[in-house]
Specification:
RsuA_PseudoU_synthase; Alpha-Beta Plaits; isomerase; Pseudouridine synthase; S4_RNA-bd; alpha+beta; 242 residues; 21% helix; Structural Genomics Hypothetical 15.5 Kd Protein In mrcA-pckA Intergenic Region, Chain A; four-stranded antiparallel β-sheet
């Protein structure tokens, strides 16, 4: 890995900013001052010290984001703000991407990482990683709808796997429902389509959980943080390198 890339990924600034550190002789590689940003290093074996502090290489990073509405789950887009635009420059240096997607008008938990194998495992139908959503619904959900979800709703292009529908609140005056839906799939507009198949409409959708990860109530919309060590360890059930 190039030395300037390693320094930038460790949060020491942009490529231009780390070049200034190198120019000043503040970066030691195995005890020797290195001034060239193009210097190739072994990020797992070489000792890198900047201003007296030793840096360690972090192969994978994991960010938990509370995605707001109006932002798309993509790495770049010409028309809309993306989830990467919500990160700071240091976090973006890690070349992370969203694991799966949330519709532009859906908010809630979204995992961003640079660990491709983990992302594949979390989205693989074979792994059956559950996702839980809270939905505000126009219309009154009934026990019959709970049973339809459990049986597997048949849509025009595919039949959904059995899912759990939990009715949290019913407002008969306004004819609205608050429900929680847990499913192990994540096909295009699936939650909205399942509710529509029951003759109702989702008016607000929030993802609360994905696998062992839960939405952090301390995160405001648009805020993000690194996964805790405990959260990272919880992902070991997927059987990939973390």
């Amino acid at each position: 890995m190039r030395l300037d890339k390693f320094l930038a990924e460790n949060g020491l600034g942009s490529r231009a900013q780390v070049k200034q550190l190198l120019k000043k002789g503040l970066v030691l590689v195995n005890g020797r001052a290195e001034k060239s940003p193009k210097t190739q290093i072994d990020e797992t074996a070489d000792e890198i010290i900047v201003s007296g502090q030793r840096l360690t290489y972090e192969k994978f990073v994991y960010y938990l984001l509370n995605k707001p509405q109006g932002v798309i789950s993509a790495t770049e887009d010409d028309q809309h703000k993306t989830v990467l635009d919500l990160l700071d420059e240091t976090a973006r240096q890690k070349e992370v991407f969203p694991v799966g997607r949330l519709d532009i008008d859906t908010h809630g938990l979204l995992l961003l990482t640079n660990n491709g194998k983990l992302a594949h495992a979390m989205l693989s139908p074979k792994k059956h990683v559950e996702k839980t959503y809270r939905a505000q619904v126009a219309g009154l959900m009934k026990q019959a709808d709970v049973e339809r979800f459990a049986a597997g709703i048949e849509l025009k292009d595919f039949t959904c796997q059995p899912a759990q529908l939990k009715i949290l609140e019913l407002d008969e005056a306004k004819e609205t429902s608050l429900v929680e839906i847990t499913l192990a799939e994540g096909k295009f507009h699936q939650v909205k389509r399942m509710v529509a198949a029951c003759g109702k409409e989702v008016t607000d959708l929030q993802r609360l959980a994905m696998g062992p990860l839960q939405l952090d109530p301390a995160l405001a919309l648009g805020e993000w943080r690194r996964l805790t060590e405990e959260e990272i360890l919880s992902l070991e059930i997927l059987g990939v390198e973390l």
